[in-house]
Automatic annotation (TrEMBL):
Taxon lineage: Bacteria, Pseudomonadati, Pseudomonadota, Alphaproteobacteria, Hyphomicrobiales
Family designation: Belongs to the Gfo/Idh/MocA family.
GO BP terms in the entry: inositol catabolic process
Domain GFO/IDH/MocA-like oxidoreductase positions: 130-244
Gene3D superfamilies: Dihydrodipicolinate Reductase, domain 2, NAD(P)-binding Rossmann-like Domain
Record text on subunit structure and interactions: Homotetramer.
Top EC class of this enzyme: oxidoreductase
A GO term, aspect molecular function: inositol 2-dehydrogenase (NAD+) activity
Catalysed reaction, written as an equation: myo-inositol + NAD(+) = scyllo-inosose + NADH + H(+)
Protein name: Inositol 2-dehydrogenase
UniProt-listed Enzyme Commission number(s): 1.1.1.18
InterPro entries for the chain: Gfo-Idh-MocA_inositol_DH, Gfo/Idh/MocA-like_OxRdtase_N, GFO_IDH_MocA-like_dom, MI/DCI_dehydrogenase, NAD(P)-bd_dom_sf
Organism: Plantimonas leprariae
Reported function: Involved in the oxidation of myo-inositol (MI) to 2-keto-myo-inositol (2KMI or 2-inosose).
Keyword Oxidoreductase attributed: yes
Amino acid sequence: MTLRVGVIGTGTIGRDHIRRLTTVLSGAAVVAVADIDRDGAAAAAPPGAETFDTAEALIRSDKVDAAVICSWGPAHEEQLLAAIAAGKPVFCEKPLTTSEAAALKVMEAETAFGRRLVQVGFMRRFDADYRRLKAVIDAGELGAPLMFHSVHRNASVPAGLYTSDMPLNDTLVHDADVSRWLLTDEIAGVEVRLPRRSRQGGELRDPHLVLLHMRSGAIVDVEISVNIAYGYDIRGEVSCERGVAALPNRPATVVSDLRGIRQAIPEDWRQRFVEAYDQEFREWIAAASAGTATGPSTWDGYAATLVADAALRAVSSGNLEPVAMIRKPELYDVPAAKAA
Ligand code: NAD
Ligand code: ISE
């Protein structure tokens, strides 16, 4: 059976996901697209796919079995609620929502439905290097994880569109999610320090040094630099009681010439995580074809939203801001070892 997918939001990542669903992966076909920019949607539609005027019409259509949401964060809530109301599996790019209240609404709707329908786009959980790192920590030979050093560097972000809150509510959410997943822990509080401002981004607040205080007492330090010019550089190292485990340097051809010896660095997230996005969608297609969702859940999206909110409060207060989660609904109580 081929899963008939409708893609909402045909901007940068929407088009990249259409490409992978259409030309890389099997088991799915993009049969519908929608975007507030209708012409953009029509241009991105693969042959034979219908262009809808609204996301809601696409979700309700009998031609569509499952939806992929790649619109801007503030639009996710309404689109997720529409997919849950239609009982259709939905992949939603991060962030799940842009407010705690919205995340709770989505969670209430999904728990009332009674079956998981939502997978959130935290693709690092599908990256082979991160999966191997987690396997080492989970094996326990190195003892308990004490510190995680996470580095998240973007070569550049779109001037004007990417605002000063976004390093925390758009970019940090990946580090927050991967910290909870890698350490099998929850984030209890957030501190933010603002180093000297980089002149690369004009008035943009950048870089940030974020401290995530985990419930276990472990501490995660995160460097967020979004205009570092040289490339997209993601690093991670976990210090445990009896050793250290780190992401490897990415393999890249070694070029030797008049300028010396060098290796290319990925330009952006599309290059660095290409295999992770492919695997993320392989697993989504399998679950959605069975009418459900696995992998990062609404609960995980809610957790990341709370961390982003706390980080933004920490910028204003200069204090350690607490993260208070509601009790986890049973629907999301997957044994840690099974969670992607
Ligand atoms: P983009 O601006 O390139 O594209 C967003 C598209 O959504 C635009 O075409 C816009 O017209 C459309 N849109 C906005 N509101 C809409 C609505 N109500 N209905 C239909 N279409 C609507 O942005 P992007 O970089 O493609 O990011 C899209 C989403 O993907 C964001 O949530 C972003 O955080 C996320 N993202 C995730 C990753 C990742 O690594 N997982 C990487 C990039 C972006
Ligand atoms: C973008 O939306 C992503 O999700 C990327 O993975 C991240 O590195 C970037 O900073 C975000 O803007």
